[in-house]
Specification:
eight-stranded antiparallel sheet, mainly beta, five-stranded mixed sheet
Length: 351
């Protein structure tokens, strides 16, 4: 049996994931948060925004990062007083599990009726892995993107769309739900997602809070979403089985999606990919063989928070203890204050 320590992605890589949008496809915007100023907006003139991605939140997509509501440098807080953001982040990141899903195609949708102002396409999808790679997309961090004008000085921007997928052109009229393109990983993206920025009078607005909110997270909220989008700072990304120790890059690429494994594999491992773990959270893994034997398990406390997290348990294939054919079962639970916040149950057949 092997019980392998969980892996954590470095925060520096995740903060590459949603561009601070140093260029608003034509509008110059600082790459760090500016001092907060009150925006005067008439509530009756504010659009109501639909979800900008064709998926079901909590099932086949999730919100990984929110706008930063802390106006000071080097500090960051999301609207729920959590840490699923980074300093100067200017939008909401609707993410999917991996690049394999991205290749299948997940539509990006217009969040409200309006007129397409600007479009950029033709940038490759290349998930960034280091700060040096981010320098290569300086000035075009948004990647393939679209700006839509909604009237009354409201605009939205959609970033990181898949190369060659954009289906609208400047001057086109769109409705809420009009397909704009596909989720991608172009520009300064370290995971596949669409980054939605909302602006009023040229200033960033968190759609979970509204235009007239004070800085910080303990403020009155006037949501701009057409349908209520709940706050979920911790949740599942994916889980599965592998014949070798996975890396975070492997999981973002979409490897190890097989539902059938060979009995000749060198090992069988049950892996889990989640987001928003906190220091003090407890996790428990269990891997059960077809004969009902628990061949691997692990239970421990997480010692540091992480915006994305992965871990796994497994066993080696040895002559003395071979991997037997049949259905193997993996179970995982993440607990916070003795309550389950993430749970996975997966099965794979070995032949």
């Amino acid at each position: 049996m092997i019980s392998l320590k969980p892996k954590q992605i470095a925060t520096i890589l995740l903060t590459l994931g949603a561009a601070s949008c140093a260029t608003w496809l034509g509008f110059q915007v600082p790459g760090i948060a500016r001092p907060h100023r009150t925006i005067s907006a008439r509530t009756e003139n504010a659009p109501r925004f639909a979800q900008p991605i064709d998926c079901t939140l909590g099932e086949d997509c999730f919100i990984l990062l929110y706008p930063d509501l802390d106006p000071t440098p080097e500090e960051a807080v999301d609207f729920g007083c959590g840490r699923q953001t980074y300093d100067g982040h200017k939008g909401t990141d609707f993410a999917i599990s991996d690049e394999a899903t991205m290749a299948q195609g997940v539509p990006v949708l217009a969040a409200a009726p309006g007129t397409v102002l600007r479009v950029r396409d033709g940038m490759p999808d290349r998930r960034l892995r280091s700060l040096s790679e981010k320098e290569e997309v300086a000035g075009v961090e948004c990647g393939n993107g679209i700006v839509i004008d909604h009237g009354n000085q409201w605009q939205t921007q959609y970033c990181h769309l898949r190369n060659g997928s954009i289906s609208v052109r400047p001057g086109m009229e769109v409705e809420a739900g009009t397909p704009l393109g596909m989720v991608g990983a172009s520009g300064a993206a370290s995971f596949p997602h669409v980054h939605l920025s909302v602006r009023y009078q040229g200033e960033v607005v968190d759609p979970f809070v509204g235009a007239n909110a004070a800085p910080g997270c303990n403020v009155q909220r006037n949501s701009l979403w057409a349908d209520s989008l709940g706050y979920q700072p911790t949740g599942p990304i994916d889980a599965g089985f592998a014949a070798e120790a996975p890396t975070m890059d492997d999981l973002w690429e979409g490897r190890f999606r097989d539902s059938l494994l060979s009995r000749d594999i060198p090992a069988i491992l049950f892996w889990v990919h989640t987001y928003g773990v906190l220091q003090g959270d407890e996790f428990a893994f269990k891997l059960t063989a077809p004969n009902g034997e628990i061949v691997a398990q692990d239970k421990r406390t997480i010692d540091s928070p992480s915006k994305t997290w992965m871990g796994y348990v497994g066993k080696r294939n040895t002559p003395q203890r071979p991997i037997i054919p049949g259905v193997w079962r993996g179970e995982y639970r993440l607990l916070r204050n003795n309550k389950v916040v993430v749970e996975f149950e997966r099965e794979v057949e070995v032949q």
